[in-house]
Amino acid sequence: MHRHMHHHMPRRSFLRIGAAVGLAAGLTLAACGDDTDEGDAGTGGAVEIEGAWARTSPMMAEAGAAYFTITSPVDDALVGASVDASVAGVVEMHETRMVETDMTATTMEGGTGDGMGDGMGEMEMVPVERIELPAGEAIALKPGGLHLMLLDLPDPLELDETFTITLTLENAGEQQVEVTVRDEAP
């Protein structure tokens, strides 16, 4: 009997270790999903910024736009951005959104006359105070959506030129992203 018990011991302790590892992994996953800040949540990984590019607005050479995809490992928000004064005077966060013309058709002259605008809405660029970055979710800044506007450019952005944008995140602080000027998304 005694020998039989002894024989089982190593296997049992092995199982227990395996269970502990599985449990720890489960806990880490759970920590990503909830809103409680464990304090060490920030060490889970760096903010990732990919595919950064910029272009001068064809309509206004003194304005440009920058785009990139940003993923934060924890809940965070992009609250500001800046560039060197040689690149642009001001960087603003904007969102291009559809404004429904249906509701306001009566106040707009000829809004209902041509049938073009009905239900389609118009694109409008709205400055935003912050861009929410939910944990682990890739937020794409792209033409027709969220983007950074580069205003008061001393010179139009040259193709293949690179410059650095400093992003300010609410939790992660400043993040530098190198941007290349291109005709279209990389």
Give a concise summary.
The protein has 186 residues and is an alpha+beta fold. It is built from one helix and ten strands, in the order αββββββββββ.
If you had to describe this structure to a student in words, what would you say it looks like?
The chain is an alpha+beta fold. Helices cover 17% and strands 38% of the residues. It contains 1 helix and 10 strands. The protein has one helix at residues 2-33, and strands at residues 48-56, 64-71, 76-83, 90-99, 122-127, 131-133, 138-141, 146-151, 162-169, 173-181. Strands 1, 2, 3, 4, 5, 6, 7, 8, 9 and 10 form a 10-stranded mixed sheet that branches. Strand 9 (162-169) and strand 10 (173-181) form a beta hairpin. It is globular and about 40 Å long. 17% of the residues are buried. Mean pLDDT is 78; it is low at 23-43, 104-108 and 110-118.
Draw up the topology in text.
Layout: H1 2-33, E1 48-56, E2 64-71, E3 76-83, E4 90-99, E5 122-127, E6 131-133, E7 138-141, E8 146-151, E9 162-169, E10 173-181
Parallel strand pairs: 1-10
Antiparallel strand pairs: 1-2, 2-7, 2-8, 3-6, 3-9, 4-5, 4-8, 9-10
Residue ranges: pLDDT <50 for 5 or more in a row? Answer: 23-43, 104-108, 110-118
Please, how many helices? 1
Class based on secondary structure composition and strand pairing: alpha+beta
User: What form results from the Cα inertia axes?
Assistant: globular
Strand content: 35-45%
